[in-house]
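Thread: "does anyone have the structure for this chain?"

Original post by V.I.:
We have the sequence but no experimental structure in hand. Need at least a predicted one for the grant figures.
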Amino acid sequence: MTVLQVIALHPYKIGSFEEYSLSFTKEMNKRGHNVIFVFGGEPHPHIKEKLNESNTTYYIEEIPQNALGMVSMFYRLLRLILNTRPDIVQGQFHPHDHLAVMAGFLTGRPAYRTIHTTSFSSIRRLKYSSIVKANISSFLSKSTFAVSNAVKKDLIANLHVPAKKIRVLYNGVNLKRYCPKRNDFSLHSEIGISKSEKIILTVAHARPEKGLNYLIEAVPSIIKAQPKVHFIFCGGGPMENNLIQLGKDLGVSSNIHFLGARDDIPELLNCSYIFALPSLVEAQGLAVLEAMAMEKAVVACDVEGIPEVVEHGITGLLVPPKDSKSLSEAIITLLDSPEKTAQMGIQGRKRAENLFDLNKRVANEIRIYEDELGLQPETR
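Reply from O.Q.:
Generated one for you, C-alpha cells below.
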C-alpha cells in the first residue's frame, strides 16, 4: 500500500506535526507499506535526514498565492498521482487538503482529509465559500478525520458536513521524546535566574487567538503573591513585540522572557514548574499534550477541544477565556500547592499515555486505510 500525504504545512521545526510525519513513515515501513509526502515548504534538516534514511520520497509544493497558482498546483498533483499511483490520498491543512481530495477523486483513489482547526480558529467571520469547499471535500472523500470532538461538532453545526462522514482521530504526542527527566535547571541558567525560582512556560505563536496578552496582564498580581516566578514565552510570532511592550508598560518585564521559536521544547518543559496556555480558540491543543506528557500541570482556557485533553482539577485547571484574574488565581493556586501540582503532572502523563500516544494514533490511521483496501491481517 502506498499513501500520498499532501500537507500544506512544512516541517520547519521539531514539533508534534513533524513527529507525526516521522512516526507515520516508520509505521508504514514497519508494515511493508510506502509513503510519499508533499510538503508546503522545505523540511527542517532533521526531518530531511530521517526521511532520507528511510528512502522516503517527498516533494515541495508551496501554498499557492492566487487562483492561477491553485490551478497549477492541482494539475501537478494530478500528474503526481498518475505517475506514482498511490492507493490512498490524504490531505491536511488548507488548501492542500481540498486539492488532494479532488485530485484523489478524479484519479479514482480513496481520499481522506484531516481537519486540525475549527471555523472559529482564525477569529474571522465564517465565509460561505468555506462551507461550500468543506461540503465538496466531504462529498468527494471517504472520510474526514477531526482531531477532537470539538472539531467534529464545528464541522457539523457550522460547516454542515454530514456526521456520517466524520471520524474523530485525536492528535498524539511522541512519548519517548516527551518524557520527564530530572531537572537540570539549564533554562534557569540561560535566563539568569536561581534554581529556587519557578518557571511558568507558554509555547505558542504570538497571534491574537492565543490570548497571550491576558496572561501577561495576569503577571503583576501573580508576582505580587509569588515574587520568585518567571514567565517564559516560546514560539515567536507577529505580536511578540507588542507583548514585550505590554510587559514593560505593566512594570513586569524583568519577570518575562521571550525565547522565540525553539526546537528543544521537551528540555524547556522539563525545567518548568507548570505550563500555561491562555488560548481563545484551540481545536485540541498539542502544546498542552506535550506539557502533560512531561508531567506538567496545565493552566488553560476552557475553550473548544481543551476540556477533552485537560481534566479540570485532575491534570490541571481550566479558566474562562479572556479572564486575566482567573488566570492569575489558578496559577497562584498551583504555585501555593507544589504537592498537588506534582500529582496533576503525574496524572497528566498517565492521561497522555492512555489517550494521546502518537504511535497508537498513527497505527489507527493506517488501519483505516488498510481496511479500505481490504488488506487482511496477515498481509499487513
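V.I.: this helps a lot. DSSP finds 15 helices and 13 strands in the chain.
O.Q.: and The longest strand covers residues 2-7.
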